[in-house]
Amino acid sequence: MKSSFIKRAGAALLAFGCVALAGPALAAQANSNDSSKKPVTVGFTVYAMSGWVSSGKEGVDKVAKANNVDLRWASADGSVASQVAQVKQFISQNVDAIIIDPVDSSALGPQIKEARDKGIKVIGTNVKIFPPGEQYLTSYVGPDDVLAGENETKALVEKIGGKGNVVILKGPLGQSATIDRTKGIENVLKQHPGIKVLAQRPGDWKREEGYNITASWLSRYGTKIDGIISENDDMAVGAIRAMRQRRITNVPVVGVDGIEAGLKNVASGRQLVTNLQNAPLQLGMALQVAVNAVHGQSVPKKIMIHMPVVTHDNADKYMKQMYDNRQQFIDGLPELINKNLASGHYGQQ
């Protein structure tokens, strides 16, 4: 009887011991899961809050929420010095990753190297980062700007019959988007000697600059201008406003980015074409790549996103996706970005 009792007591103690031992193991597993949910801290600096960047921030915010990211957003307002200070601040805050949409493609090499040397993942986006900074990047996520410049120029050349006078509104000097879109424009114009460039000036991606420069050109050249090539939609919006104030409606304007105002202008016929650089998709993807890299996943060294050409015929389609049904698109963005990264079809939308 006593022996039976001892056996039963021993079994009970053994069972209790197993539970007791399992307790810490389960607790450790729970703590491990909790630590995996620890926020990833990401500093994100952009060259300025242009219409395109403002649109893209919605995608960034959605991806940040889906990944439990502590997002620290900063705009350099077109100042290299401000952006250098912002990157230095992110480094001093010991963030996990830094994403840079640079003011100047050549300006941040020392800061990018410092971040890399301290174990911080650095992602370039939208505007390329040139050497020496480029070699220290974890990844780059951006558009094929040469192709965009070619596409908008081909449309304009066809519209004016391969001959005539054009003016070019350029982006900020030193930015890769300006350099590459200008290269694309020149690639096409070289094939059409009947087209003369009357003037070209940087409008720094700004509507007011597009307006002021175009107004000046209209005063100087008047009816000699047969077409306007704008390297983004914001400047194209300004150019269109300058012409409409003078009741000029027969000069075609082309652009890049596919911001809401640009899509509306294409749909209404005020702008000939734009190229849809899907800001929420691209900037959101840059953040997802940063998160993946922080988590130790392998990420592509370079992700190039091709921009679809938006014409009068398909403008409504993109308008519905990007703006009329925008919340639906934004809500599905984290899943879309992960699918695109898995498939390698980065621009699928």
From TrEMBL:
A Pfam short name: Peripla_BP_4
Keyword Nucleotide-binding in record: no
Signal is among the record's keywords: yes
One GO process term, biological-process aspect: transmembrane transport
Subcellular location: Cell envelope
GO cellular component, one term: cell envelope
InterPro entries noted in UniProt: Peripla_BP_I, SBP_2_dom
Domain Periplasmic binding protein: 43-297
Keywords (A to Z) from UniProt: Signal
Gene Ontology MF terms: carbohydrate binding
PANTHER family named in the record: D-ALLOSE-BINDING PERIPLASMIC PROTEIN-RELATED
UniProt record similarity statement: Belongs to the bacterial solute-binding protein 2 family.
Name of the featured protein: Periplasmic binding protein/LacI transcriptional regulator
Naturally occurring in which organism (per UniProt): Salinisphaera hydrothermalis (strain C41B8)
